[in-house]
């Protein structure tokens, strides 16, 4: 097997809104994640026409309010990451901790001091922080008062937020990402854009306008980062699902190319190449508008061109198959499903497991863009059983990760420039798609159930020791 390069960044990934809790501590304001109900129906609830971000604790639970109490236990958690041997730790900064309403002129110092402490704790163990500036949350006020990212005023608010954290931490943090899974808004704009039906989520033009505003804001973050330190690495972050045609029917082949363009590549093409791709109007016309119907100007396009991202962060959990000529059995997935692939098995939540698809994804992305790649999410959501001795034998997770790491090694042998790997939810946390604790990804078990009951005690799973060996051997012992 191809060896991983020296200095390869092994680690794990989390998001502030899914693990921190402390949702009103330290001057933090409410975020859109704080208003998302828990449970597997959360997306159905937020897609109702009367959903208006009201927090109704009589009808719903809100697991993000507590998370796993990382806000108060981050030192314990980071010590466990260090015990595994993490070289890096990907986490996000909660926008509403720094600007509680989002539109303030001055940041909340208490929120900044919290991240001072988190970063210091990482560096104490020589763990490289990898920070997502905006990960599926924004101050709730920006969604309710301003209408989310479809409003161009959010560019200014994000720029202020990004400038604040980049200025404060650029000498301690080398790797940054602008927006988490930015392309996910194609299917669910609530988390990444703050759009629900009540403020325009059902009109595709609003989603594309929101994307444009995010592209401009992200380019500003790249510009700010490079002005602070030309060597700073500011990347984008995409949700990537390797996509196959179900068969050799040319109609399905064309549909597969177009789905790849529409979902896997559009947001990347703009942020990585610095300009809108040739197929932009083809993509928009299917929804009844063109690029010229959006609110943009030449200065914004020049900003995009001058400030492409430095590397490509992406998530990979599953692949998808395309069949447009006949009805086929469908499956669930990471915000998008597809046709059931008869060659693949699936997770407890129906996500099709395809490690070879990761090698394909790495080759496709590197061939297209020729920029360093960073797998910042990958993992298996599963129902873990803990015994009386607090042991979790999660061999199924070990098997999943082993096969995906082998695919990574294969891609490196193919010539792909891969800089790191941070499996998702390295410690159990609240699922973004279902609001559940029972959908577990971590190497560390957290005693908390879907009803919010439990001690919050942490326990090492079998995969903890396995991943420790993987890191120590730089991927040679799997």
TrEMBL record:
GO terms for biological process: carbohydrate catabolic process. It is an enzyme of class 3 (hydrolase). The active site is at residue 377. One of its GO terms (molecular function) is 6-phospho-beta-glucosidase activity. SUPFAM superfamilies: (Trans)glycosidases. Pfam families: Glyco_hydro_1. It comes from the Bacteria. One of its GO terms (cellular component) is cytosol. Its EC number is 3.2.1.86. Belongs to the glycosyl hydrolase 1 family. This is Aryl-phospho-beta-d-glucosidase. It comes from Latilactobacillus fuchuensis.
């Amino acid at each position: 097997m191809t060896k991983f390069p020296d200095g390869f960044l092994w680690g794990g990934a989390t998001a502030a809104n899914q693990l921190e809790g402390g949702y009103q501590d330290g001057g933090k304001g409410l975020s859109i994640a704080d208003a998302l109900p828990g449970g597997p129906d959360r997306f159905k609830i937020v897609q109702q026409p009367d959903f208006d971000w009201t927090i109704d604790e009589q009808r719903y639970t809100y697991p993000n309010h507590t998370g796993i109490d990382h806000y108060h236990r981050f030192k314990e958690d980071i010590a466990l990451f260090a015990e595994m041997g993490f070289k890096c730790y990907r986490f996000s900064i909660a926008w509403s901790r720094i600007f509680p309403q989002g539109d303030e002129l001055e940041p909340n110092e208490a929120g900044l001091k919290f991240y001072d402490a988190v970063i210091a704790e990482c560096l104490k163990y020589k763990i490289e922080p990898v920070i997502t500036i905006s990960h599926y949350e924004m101050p709730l006020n920006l969604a309710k008062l301003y209408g989310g990212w479809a409003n161009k005023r959010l560019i200014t608010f994000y720029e202020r937020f990004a400038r604040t954290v980049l200025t404060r931490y650029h000498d301690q943090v080398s790797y940054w990402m602008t927006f988490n899974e930015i392309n996910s808004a194609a299917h669910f704009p609530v988390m990444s854009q703050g759009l629900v039906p009540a403020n325009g989520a059902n009109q595709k033009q609003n989603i594309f306008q929101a994307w444009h505003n995010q592209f401009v804001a992200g380019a500003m973050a790249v510009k700010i980062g490079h002005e602070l330190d030309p060597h700073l690495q500011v990347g984008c972050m995409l949700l990537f699902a390797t996509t196959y045609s179900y068969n050799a029917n040319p109609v399905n082949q064309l549909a597969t190319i177009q789905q790849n363009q529409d979902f896997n590549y559009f947001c990347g093409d703009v942020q990585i190449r610095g300009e809108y791709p040739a197929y932009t109007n083809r993509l928009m016309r299917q929804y009844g508008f063109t690029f010229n119907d959006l609110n943009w100007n030449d200065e914004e396009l020049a900003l995009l061109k001058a400030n492409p991202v430095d590397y490509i962060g992406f998530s990979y959990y599953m692949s998808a198959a395309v069949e447009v000529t006949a009805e086929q059995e469908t499956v669930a997935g990471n915000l998008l499903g597809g046709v059931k692939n008869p060659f693949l098995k699936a997770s407890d939540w129906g996500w099709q497991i395809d490690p070879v698809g990761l090698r394909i994804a790495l080759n496709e992305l590197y061939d297209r863009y020729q920029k360093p790649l960073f797998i910042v999410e990958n993992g298996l959501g599963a129902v873990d059983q803990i015994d009386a001795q607090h042991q979790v034998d999660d061999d199924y997770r070990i098997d999943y990760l082993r096969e995906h790491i082998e695919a990574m090694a294969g891609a490196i042998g193919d010539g792909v420039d891969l800089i790191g790997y941070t499996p998702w939810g390295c410690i159990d946390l609240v699922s973004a798609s279902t609001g559940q604790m029972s959908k577990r990804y971590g190497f560390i078990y957290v005693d908390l159930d879907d009803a919010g009951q439990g001690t919050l005690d942490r326990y090492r799973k079998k995969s903890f020791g396995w991943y420790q060996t993987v890191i120590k051997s730089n991927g040679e012992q799997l």
